[in-house]
């Protein structure tokens, strides 16, 4: 057996023995260990049971992660944001420690599931921040329920139907993940998860900041990998839905963040097709995985944007983040 194969078997054994998606560093029940005041929880929604981590008090700030990661990607910014907000970081349906639904991986359906979870946790108004997939899910939440979303931050993804398709020729993983089942499932089930996902983390400018081992464990389960592919397979439906509803423009402020060595202002360019108040911000010294590559910048930027009132930024690169 190769060293890579042995590592994969070890990671899979950790997952199937009950360690769960994030247990390389965190349990999935009880008090969270990564910072005081945070707890793990679960909430039932239509077709799934969602895992979340919650802490702080005040207005609800919901964090939605991207692929191939979990809620854990937000760990370095959550304690600071919890000084002013009730921070709730979900594992998306089918990913992390959330259960795998049988259908409904289009982003509008997923947004409704997240909204249902938020309501069952006792909140009817939220602020949203999403990365990658989380951006694609947060958008229909804000669009379809505008009275419930007061402010909206998006990181590192153009919208399906408004720029996402232009990326398909840049990296082969888009078409691979979108391939009909069981093509990617079969290939990856006979291959090396750390090699494939490790390649994805090379979209970072500072790959040493990515907690790769945690995410390798999170996607060691074939059902989690398949759920990730299903989110990709829904991209055409997402594009159709977004274009059909583009006339319902977002009126709340949209903070559009792109990494200096990734999308840059491209996220803002995409969201101008659907929103009236778009604030472009470039995260310095960062590629695609901004929350891990430059957590101090994102912490400061998000606190400014989600603050109760405007504050003078401490550094010039934060000027676009001001409320």
From TrEMBL:
AB hydrolase-1 domain residues: 59-294
Leader sequence residues: 1-21
Keyword Signal: yes
Signal recorded as keyword: yes
Keywords of the record: Hydrolase, Signal
GO MF annotation list: hydrolase activity
Protein name: Epoxide hydrolase
């Amino acid at each position: 057996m190769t060293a890579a194969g042995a590592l994969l078997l070890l990671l899979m054994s950790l997952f199937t023995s009950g360690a769960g998606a994030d247990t390389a560093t965190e349990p999935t029940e009880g008090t969270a260990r990564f910072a005081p005041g945070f707890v793990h929880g679960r909430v039932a929604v239509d077709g799934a049971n969602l895992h979340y981590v919650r802490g702080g008090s005040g207005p609800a700030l919901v964090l939605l992660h991207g692929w191939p990661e979990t809620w854990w990607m937000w760990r370095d910014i959550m304690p600071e944001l919890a000084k002013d907000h009730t921070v709730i970081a979900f594992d998306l349906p089918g990913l992390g420690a959330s259960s795998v639904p049988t259908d409904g991986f289009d982003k509008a359906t997923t947004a409704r599931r997240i909204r249902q979870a938020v309501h069952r946790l006792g909140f009817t108004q939220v602020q949203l921040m999403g990365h990658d997939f989380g951006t694609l899910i947060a958008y229909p939440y804000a669009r379809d329920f505008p009275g419930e979303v007061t402010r909206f931050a998006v990181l590192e993804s153009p919208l399906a139907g408004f720029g996402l398709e232009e990326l398909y020729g840049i990296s082969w993983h888009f078409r691979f993940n979108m391939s009909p089942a069981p093509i990617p499932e079969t290939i990856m089930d006979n291959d090396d998860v750390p090699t494939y996902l490790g390649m994805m983390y090379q979209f970072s400018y500072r790959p040493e900041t990515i907690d790769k081992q945690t995410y390798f464990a999170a996607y060691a389960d074939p059902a989690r990998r398949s759920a990730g592919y299903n989110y990709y397979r829904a991209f055409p439906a997402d594009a159709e839905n977004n274009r059909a509803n583009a006339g319902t423009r977002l009126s709340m402020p949209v903070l559009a963040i792109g990494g200096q060595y990734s999308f840059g202002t491209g996220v803002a360019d995409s969201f101008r097709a659907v929103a009236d108040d778009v604030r472009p911000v470039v995260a310095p010294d960062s590629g695609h995985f901004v929350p891990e590559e430059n957590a101090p910048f994102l912490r400061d930027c998000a606190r400014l944007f989600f603050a109760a009132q405007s504050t003078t930024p401490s550094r010039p690169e934060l000027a676009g983040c001001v409320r």
